[in-house]
Please model this.
Amino acid sequence: MPAANNIMKTLICILITLSTLTCVSQQVSQYHTFPGTDNFITREIGFNVKRLEYPDYNVIIKANKSGGEKITIIYYKEQDTLISIQAGPIYFYGIYKNYLFLDEGTGIIRNLMIFDLTDHCFIYSSQYKNPLSLKSDSLFYAYPFPQTREIFDTFPKCPDSLKKFNQYGYSEERIFILKSRKSITTGKIKCEYRE
Model:
């Protein structure tokens, strides 16, 4: 019986270790995506270096000492490097089909860039606020309006609860259609807290 107990303890330890690794992998994966982007497998390939394996691409991500990430996209079938980025606070934010999403900035209001991996060019850039989501080849996001007197005079009044902190602004839901490369304003404007 002691041998059976040791085997059982070993199996329990293995299961705990595997479930912990799965949780860590899921946390890393969620950090580099938003709803609607393609799924991938995360592999640690060095200190602060990850490889995200998509069906058609490998993405190598390495943290920069000055902030941001060094991002290298490799076409899986030919092992050709398609793009390599390592300037400023730019972060990998996911791949959907042949579109690469990059996030730039360090605050609440950030810049979103979309790169077409087939045509090898940037197709869109806009300021945004989270959350982002993809549905049926369309990107939904909140566009933050600049905090100007004209904006505050034009839009509906904000609740007093936000005004008392003087940290509020307006955003509008917008849609970017990937195939047609057109941006649509929805007219849905809301007042919200900003840091």
Q: What stands out?
A: The first strand starts at residue 41 and ends at 46.
